[in-house]
Write a structure and sequence with these properties.
The complex is a heterodimer of chains A (122) and B (143).
Chain A: H1 19-44, H2 52-58, H3 62-90, H4 94-120
Chain B: H1 27-44, H2 46-58, H3 60-69, H4 79-109, H5 114-139
Helix pairs in contact in B: 1-4, 1-5, 2-3, 4-5
Classes of the chains: A mainly alpha (122), B mainly alpha (143).
Chain lengths: 122, 143
């Protein structure tokens, strides 16, 4: 690793200094795991078959909407770190990697926007 | 180290076509690469996941259409194909989740011996594949 990391030697595609993202993946993972348990519990403890009313009803309450929204944002960052690691490991050419990073971000932000829209239409 | 220990094969400049197929990956290695693959798969199928979520909560009609998609299909896509995609997502989520919990457990409790790596990897595969089989059977109407 060169000791010069400013100016034209600054790496624009990379993990920066690593620790923040490593921790963020774990924190977001724990949050999403808790959300999974919360959602699963609501599904399991619904007596009778789950039709539209029961299912949409789960996401209708304000607290569930806020929790789901937080999880969507958490997922966004979690996936970004994961995908960036994949590109960094396998794609050597800088231009291609940068393009894939941009594609990944557009994909993820679009997905996040769509899911928030669906959530708040309720 | 005694002289009887065989010299371990070294892998430099790994050639995807020559070395990867002949390399014996330990169980922990299999869990690890599947963790990455399952994550990538979910990334690719994200629009599908959101499409299902959207249709499931928007209205009675869209909910019914989504349910029908798994039966008779939508357009030219047959129902069993949607079920297959759902099964892939179920496996991907279960494996990624359980392997992720294993990661965090090893981080938090410093459980980093080779033995634990092996036993926890086996447990991960058994649990994730087992649950996938159970949920898959339910999905395909086997019970």
């Amino acid at each position: 690793m060169s000791s010069v990391n400013y100016g034209s030697k600054r790496i624009v595609t990379g993990a920066g200094y690593g620790f923040c993202d490593w921790l963020a993946q774990r924190v977001t993972a724990v949050l999403m795991a808790l959300f999974t348990v919360v959602l699963l519990a609501q599904v399991i403890f619904t007596s009778g078959p789950i039709g539209y009313e029961e299912w949409a009803g789960i996401f209708a309450s304000q607290w569930m909407k806020v929790l789901t929204f937080t999880v969507i944002i958490a997922l966004l960052y979690h996936v970004w770190v994961g995908m960036r690691d994949i590109w960094m490991d396998y794609i050597k050419p800088l231009a291609l990697r940068l393009a894939l990073h941009v594609f990944t971000l557009v994909w993820l932000i679009g997905c996040a926007g769509w899911s928030v829209q669906a959530l708040w239409r309720l | 180290m005694t002289e009887l220990v065989r010299k371990r094969p070294e892998f430099r400049n790994i050639n995807a076509l020559k070395d990867l197929p002949s390399y014996r990956l330990p169980v922990a290695g299999i869990v690890s690469i599947l963790h990455r693959i399952s994550g990538f798969l979910m990334f690719l199928l994200m629009p599908l996941i959101i499409w299902m979520f959207d249709n499931s909560i928007t209205s009675e009609i869209s909910f019914a259409k989504l349910s029908a998609a798994f039966g008779i299909g939508i357009g030219f896509v047959p129902g069993w194909f949607f079920k297959l995609l759902a099964l892939a997502l179920i496996w991907a989520y279960l494996h990624h989740f359980i392997a992720g919990v294993r990661h965090i457990y090893m981080d938090a409790f410093h459980a980093v011996t080779k033995e634990f790596g092996k036993s926890s990897a086996v447990a991960t595969l058994v649990l994730s594949l087992g649950l996938t089989a159970v949920l898959g059977a339910k999905l395909f109407g086997l019970y």
